[in-house]
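Worked problem 6 (solution included).
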Amino acid sequence: MNQRIFWTADGVDMPPLDYEFIAHWLEEVAKNHDRMVGPMNYIFCDDKKILEVNIEFLNHDYFTDIITFDYSRRRLVSGDMYISLETVASNASGLGVDYMTELKRVIVHGLLHLCGINDKGEGEREIMEMHENEALLLFNRLSGQL
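Solution. The predicted structure is:
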């Protein structure tokens, strides 16, 4: 059992994921970015909770799929990631993609932020998407889906 990556739910059911495999995948993604995984907490929640977190800690009054709090030090990535399963589902529907694929993308998105990849500045979103796509390909390779 992985002792560095923790999964909890706040007001929602835990999504049906192979958490040990996801943890292994995240560790491999971190290695590919010359990082090591330290304590990371993934908190699955609903839109109400993520809005509360967004307002309280970031002064942002809007819904989002993930909020990442970065506690990383040098090469050791560490943080808390709140993921709204409701927003993930609505984004997946709007984009015409599978819910579980979108959920994996959001999960790795948080780790990529901890690895120093941003998505707010000019051209950064495209760089983030490239890294997300590479990570999803790695997931498929590791799981034998390719």
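Discussion: The chain has a mean pLDDT of 95.
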